[in-house]
Specification:
mainly alpha
Length: about 525
């Protein structure tokens, strides 16, 4: 027998989670983020109310969970960051790994800014600083939003909380998997659950809450015949589970050999969806109260999704309700915690790739990841143009970038590399709950087909109709040009030589320390 030599790209003792519980908390922490709180309720509201839960559940079972398990199997079997894993499958696939890393990189730059907003609003809630005009305060006094343009000034009120956020993030990342990410999620996730449950319970007892819940759960069955409703359901599941852009793949690479992959994936997937439905309860109960106070029907309210829901609609509610400041502090604190656990998972995707490609130690890779993304987040999104740029970049990187990555991943793994039988065998070997061959149909058939429909429809709409009423030049600068730079950078990073190539690796089995097992 001979042992496949280990390299610095696959160290003799790769960092690992302490166990399944730590990994599950981290995976749920990544999945539960801003999109659960402000995106899901709005998508459900505009796509059939209670009827939307049917395509949502179908999407979870046919695309969300299967692709999540694909990420788990890839990370656990090939033991590396996204570029390392895809290179080990096929040297030509490394570019896909860097595409996923750069998608996470772009998301980090604006995601952190939204967290800075939430942190600032946590303190604003104490005095209800937005006064009688939450919209005017948010876009005027707070963000100082100007016309869409490339040139903009940094807003001091965003800059300083953003700097503080990056300092905390850098410390956690530098501490590593066990002492940093796992410990942070062990603290933040239980705290998030407690304060968010408090928020929901308080919302359920507001006057008019029942009207909001009726709006949420009353089904519009005709909506099920609309293809856009099904596309919206798949989009929501896909984005909220943090799949196909390196997070779950990277996280699962730190699992110990004797892990229980399939049950862990089911726990993560259903926990994420349960939190979204819980958020739906809280948000719609709150909207029912707002409609009651405004003497309008819940269906006539505006600002049901996105930043406006969180930073305009909710402040309006806070000003109207008894004990509003306490409610506001709880809401924005929960928003901050949910977003922060997702932020550090995105940072780990970038940091892990830098460690393995360039042979950097953990602390240096963490500091570089936080430093580079932090500087860009200040330059691009903490300015008077930040809200406009964020809106366009978020649209393009999510609905074109992530969807493209998922299509490529499912097709390359299924057909070019023909790895699905191997990965299915791996999943079942390291799981107490076996997966059947239906998984092939989901990964190689339904998922890429549905995602391709979403991709084509989105690109067609953006090309023919533009987006959000922004000038065409602005959309090209922050949308199409951003995507082009991501693609160019992916190819560039894939051709840069590795410090130590990760190719000499036997993925058949692993020791507990992460090294390759002896070949027979």
């Amino acid at each position: 027998m001979s042992r496949t030599p280990t390299t610095s790209a696959e160290p003799a003792r790769r960092e690992q989670w302490t166990g399944q519980y730590g990994f599950i908390l981290a995976a749920i922490g990544s999945a539960v983020g801003l999109g659960n709180i402000w995106r899901f309720p709005g998508v459900a509201y505009t796509n059939g109310g209670g009827a939307f839960l049917i395509p949502y559940l179908v999407a979870l079972l046919t695309a969300g969970i299967p692709i999540l398990l694909l990420d788990y199997s890839l990370g656990h079997r090939f033991r590396g960051s996204a570029p390392t894993v895809f290179r080990r499958i096929n040297k030509n696939f490394e570019v896909l790994g860097w595409l996923q890393v750069l998608i996470s990189f772009v998301i980090i730059t604006y995601y952190a800014v939204i967290l800075a907003w939430a942190l600032r609003y946590t303190f604003y809630s104490v005095t209800e600083a937005w006064g009688d005009d939450p919209m005017g305060f948010f876009v005027g006094d707070f963000l100082q939003v100007g016309d869409p343009a490339m040139n903009a000034d940094v807003v001091p009120g965003i800059f300083w909380p953003l700097v503080g956020l990056w300092v905390v993030a850098a410390i956690i990342m530098a501490l590593g998997i066990t002492s940093g990410l796992e410990r942070a999620n062990r603290v933040f996730m239980p705290v998030l659950l407690v304060i968010f449950l408090t928020l929901v319970v308080r919302a359920l007892f507001l006057p008019g809450a029942a009207d909001g819940l009726n709006e949420f759960f009353t089904p519009n069955w005709q909506a099920l015949g609309d293809p856009q409703v099904w596309i919206a359901a798949y989009s929501q599941i896909f984005f909220s589970l943090s799949v196909a852009f390196g997070i779950m793949l990277t996280y699962s690479s730190y699992l110990k050999r004797r892990s229980n992959l399939v049950p862990t994936g089911l726990v993560t997937g259903f926990a994420n969806s349960s939190f979204e439905i819980l958020a739906g309860f809280g948000v719609f109960a709150t909207l029912g109260f707002l409609a009651h106070k405004s003497n309008v029907a819940v269906g006539e309210l505006e600002g049901i999704t996105g930043p406006i829901l969180s930073f305009v609609t909710f402040p309006s509610v806070i000003s109207m309700m008894p004990g509003g400041p306490i409610f506001g502090v709880i809401f924005f604190a929960s928003l901050s915690l949910a977003g922060f656990t997702s932020l550090i998972s995105l940072l780990q995707v970038v940091s892990a790739a830098m460690q393995e490609k360039f042979g950097l130690n953990r602390r240096l890779a963490a500091l570089l990841s936080c430093g580079i993304t932090g500087v860009l987040s200040v330059i691009l999104f903490s300015t008077t143009n930040g809200l406009n740029a964020l809106d366009v970049v978020d649209k393009f990187i999510n609905e074109i970038g992530i969807v493209s990555s998922a299509i490529l991943m499912t097709l390359l793994v299924s057909y070019a590399a023909k790895k699905l039988p191997e990965l299915l065998k791996h999943l079942n070997h390291y799981s107490t709950l076996p997966v059947g061959k239906w998984w092939y149909a989901m990964i190689g058939g339904l998922a890429p087909a549905v995602l391709s429909v979403i991709f084509v429809a989105t690109v067609y709409s953006l090309v023919t109709e533009g987006y959000g009423g922004y000038p065409e030049s602005f959309i090209y600068q922050f949308g199409w040009t951003m995507l082009l730079l991501v693609v160019i950078a992916s190819f560039t990073l894939s051709v840069i030589p590795w410090k130590v190539k990760p190719d000499d690796f036997d993925p058949v089995d692993y020791h507990e320390d992460g090294a390759s097992a002896p070949k027979a």
